[in-house]
Specification:
mainly alpha; 5 helices; 0% strand; Transposase_InsH_N; Mobile element protein; 95 residues
Length: 95
């Protein structure tokens, strides 16, 4: 059985730097992204209601932002869901 390597201080610093870069990027995107026209286009092409189990559907803007994350990071539906639930910066970006 292989041993599990404990993270070093350098690993922690690099992880924090990476999180800060992502958060800065996502903050800039949220600032630059004029949501009103995007929501208008989405409303024209997407009806909102209930899903098959009767639960309210997700917001259109949330689905748009998760699609951006999927494109930028090459993630599947399940992977982007895991990342949004696990990553503070992804969660912050999606609102």
């Amino acid at each position: 059985m292989g041993s599990v390597r404990q993270p070093t201080l350098a690993d922690s610093i690099c992880d924090l730097r990476s999180r800060k870069i992502k958060r800065t990027f996502f903050t800039q995107i949220n600032t630059l992204l004029d949501q009103a026209p995007i929501i208008g286009v989405i409303k024209k092409h997407c009806t909102k209601g209930k899903n098959a189990s009767g639960k309210p559907s997700y917001s259109r803007l949330l689905l748009f932002k998760t699609s951006l994350l999927q494109t930028w990071y090459g993630l599947s539906d399940h992977e982007v869901e895991d990342r949004v639930n696990d990553s503070i910066s992804f969660s912050y970006f999606c609102g």
